[in-house]
TrEMBL record:
Low complexity: compositionally biased ranges: 283-299
Record-linked InterPro entries: XRCC4-like_C
Keywords: Coiled coil
Coiled-coil regions listed in the entry: 186-213
Protein name: Piso0_004534 protein
Biased composition range(s): Polar residues: 360-371
Region described as Disordered: 253-378
Species this chain originates from: Pichia sorbitophila (strain ATCC MYA-4447 / BCRC 22081 / CBS 7064 / NBRC 10061 / NRRL Y-12695) (Hybrid yeast)
Gene3D superfamilies the UniProt entry points to: 1.20.5.370
Biological classification of the source: Eukaryota, Fungi, Dikarya, Ascomycota, Saccharomycotina
């Protein structure tokens, strides 16, 4: 037979301390079984909980409803709605999780007298007279701090089941009904625990898989970094070796007194150009350009290159009037002084025939010819 047909609700346990009412000494410590059943709740903000506690000393019952639930609150930590939710959570209904709220605990105390208990095993001796002493059972809602603070107090009175109906008394006091209900709750808890364990195992396996992927990605990343670093080191070492080589070349040239070796230009009389003794065609081209262009020296006329195209502005015969070198090329002396000795020799040697031709066709010769013609006519 289903125990819920006779006993409905949720059974929880609360630590119980029995104290001597006269001396305040602790007689014994025990466990209080509490049956909580939610009934006739209008909405979430409404409360209707029936509490039934059973211990060796007797049965205590109380109904918590909207009219008296605020009487149990002792401090202003929780407002009305919050305190209603706290009581519902601490005394759950059937099918709910065990009563455990973070930061809050339940404890119970029962006043009594030491003379009603055995001195050997603290077993209750007289049950008839104890009801007059232990008529109120108190349940405390405390914080879980090292020094607990009481947030609420529930006073549950003693109930004489002889005055109740026979069916109600049998349902409330039948030990087998309580055991059956507890067994069913344990089965539900074990099923929930097994389900949570499977979920935890699946999450753990998934976490291990993610961890393996993360380790693999980390290893690949480290391999890429090491490869890039090794390639960078190779490039840097090659550049460093090249820099050292160039520094050695510069240092060798400085010790020789010539600096960095440069190509020298020598004239090639057969072609009218210059060629480099270093064999570099670029040096030869530069030398050729230098020889083919007019060369200006202090005190000497500008000499045209034999390969230069005639200028239409020049007089017939390709002879240009001689002008001062400093006037047309004020920096010619500076340029000539900065040029190498070989270039100066080449310019002078190239300009030799041209100067002779210029001397032959100079304006002085023309003026002499004009003067002789005048004398002959006269």
């Amino acid at each position: 037979m289903d125990p819920e047909q006779h006993l409905k609700g949720y059974v929880s346990t609360i630590p119980l301390t029995i104290e001597d009412k006269e001396t305040g000494d602790i007689i014994k410590r025990s466990t209080l079984f509490v049956l909580s059943k939610h009934t006739n709740a209008v909405d979430d903000n409404s409360i209707s909980i029936k509490l039934t506690t059973i211990i060796e000393e007797g049965t205590y019952c109380k109904e918590i409803n909207d009219e008296n639930y605020l009487e149990s609150r002792r401090r202003g930590t929780y407002d009305n709605e919050s305190w209603c939710r706290v009581l519902k959570y601490m005394f759950p209904d059937v099918g709910q999780l065990p009563a455990s709220k973070a930061g809050l605990t339940l404890s119970a105390r029962l006043p009594s007298l030491s003379q009603y208990y055995s001195r050997v095993d603290k077993r209750l001796l007289d049950l008839e007279d104890i009801t007059s002493v232990s008529d109120i059972l108190t349940i405390y809602v405390n914080t879980s701090d090292r020094i607990p603070i009481t947030e609420g107090v529930l006073e549950i009175p003693y109930v004489d089941l002889n005055t109740e109906s026979e069916d109600a008394a049998n349902a409330e006091l039948n030990l087998f009904h309580w055991m059956g209900l507890l067994s069913k709750q344990n089965e539900a808890l074990l099923s929930e625990l097994s389900k949570r364990q499977q979920e935890s195992r699946a999450l753990r396996e998934e976490a291990n898989a993610y961890k393996s992927q993360l380790d693999l990605s980390l290893q690949r990343h480290q391999d890429i970094v090491n490869d890039i670093q090794s390639k960078m080191y190779l490039v840097l070492n090659a550049k460093k070796a090249r820099i050292n080589e160039l520094e050695d070349m510069i240092a060798h040239g400085s010790k020789s007194g010539f600096g960095v070796p440069q190509s020298r230009r020598v004239p090639d009389n057969s072609q009218g150009t210059e060629k480099s003794d270093s064999g570099d065609p670029r040096s030869a081209t530069a030398s050729s350009s230098a020889v083919g262009s007019p060369v200006a020296s202090p005190g000497k006329p500008i000499v045209s290159s034999p390969n230069r195209q005639p200028d239409p502005s020049e007089p017939e015969g390709g002879i240009r009037p001689q002008l001062g070198t400093k006037r047309m090329y004020p920096d010619a002396a500076k340029i000539d002084s900065e040029d190498s000795p070989n270039d100066t020799d080449i310019s002078e040697s190239s300009a030799g025939p041209a100067n002779e031709e210029d001397n032959t066709n100079s304006p002085a010769s023309d003026s002499t010819f004009i003067e002789e013609s005048s004398h002959s006519e006269s």
